[in-house]
Design brief:
6-stranded mixed sheet, alpha/beta, 8-stranded mixed sheet
Length: 270
């Protein structure tokens, strides 16, 4: 008996902590599973919090020619032609107001910012703890952050952990901007209402695919809206508890080919 057809037309995968292993590589097993899912008729879309400049090299390494959703849904990017199809920017005046209100409530914050565009730089202000290996421009004068259009801001607090910072920020400025946790040490200020689901729905529409035909994989609270949009949400074993709480299933970790485990089962190869 031949296996049942692959039940989804779209496979949406987060990048860090999900598709990528800790060394920023993708296992051959996971690559093969995604190729098999594509051969079975499903499109693969990467949906990441990283803006395009921090995503492009990963997509090129994959040989990825399709559409990617970057910048927490702000950017829909055509990897094959290296161009932006859509881009949403953060209102800098509103973001500055939100930042002032937060600092008045919880004290000074370290700041970084992602500039808009395919080649947009990430600007790092004094005191911001940056992940090694990613390109960035370090600033002596934080005011330089506001000089050009931005996709988002990154904030860190010298004492509060990520969960506490997100909670405090949402309580203070949740009516002005969105606050999301995208990874360890990565708390972001976004345009109000912008989520990964926003960008994924735009990308899916371009492909003629519906939410009911989509399976999504992720590991952090910023993936919650994507899980709410997709028909089936799969959290990695290493996922944040908030995401696991809303997932339809939990697979093995990103280090243990969690995406491949699920896709192989669906393909009838497991």
């Amino acid at each position: 008996m031949s296996p049942a057809p692959f039940p989804y037309k779209l496979v949406a995968t987060d990048l860090d902590g999900t598709l990528l292993r800790g060394d920023d590589t993708i296992s051959e097993r996971t690559r093969a599973a995604l190729v098999a899912a594509t051969a079975a008729g499903a499109a693969h879309i990467i949906v990441t919090g990283r803006a395009v400049p921090w995503t492009r090299h990963v997509l090129d390494d994959l040989g990825y020619q399709g559409i990617a959703v970057c910048g927490q849904g702000a950017q829909v990017y055509d990897a094959g032609t290296h161009r932006l199809l859509t881009s949403v920017t953060l209102d800098r005046q509103l973001a500055g107001l939100a930042l002032s209100k937060m600092e008045a409530e919880i004290g000074p914050l370290a700041l970084a910012a992602s500039r808009d565009g395919v080649d947009g730089e990430v600007l790092i202000g004094p005191g911001y703890r940056m992940q090694e290996g990613l390109p960035a421009v370090y600033l002596d004068d934080p005011a330089t952050v506001w000089a050009a259009p931005l996709n988002k801001l990154y904030i860190q607090h010298p004492e509060l952990d990520d969960d506490t910072l997100v909670k405090a920020a949402r309580q203070t400025v949740g009516s002005l901007v969105d606050i999301v946790m995208a990874g360890p040490g990565i708390v972001e200020i976004l345009p109000l209402g912008l989520t990964k689901a926003t960008g994924l729905s735009l990308a899916a529409r371009r492909l003629g695919v519906k939410a009911a035909e989509t399976i999504a994989f992720g590991d952090m609270p910023n993936d919650i809206p994507m899980f709410g949009w997709a028909a089936h949400g799969v959290a990695m074993a290493n996922a944040h508890a908030e995401l696991k709480a809303v997932a339809d299933e939990v697979t093995t970790s990103n280090e243990e080919d969690g995406i491949a485990v699920v896709l192989e089962r669906l393909l009838g190869a497991a």
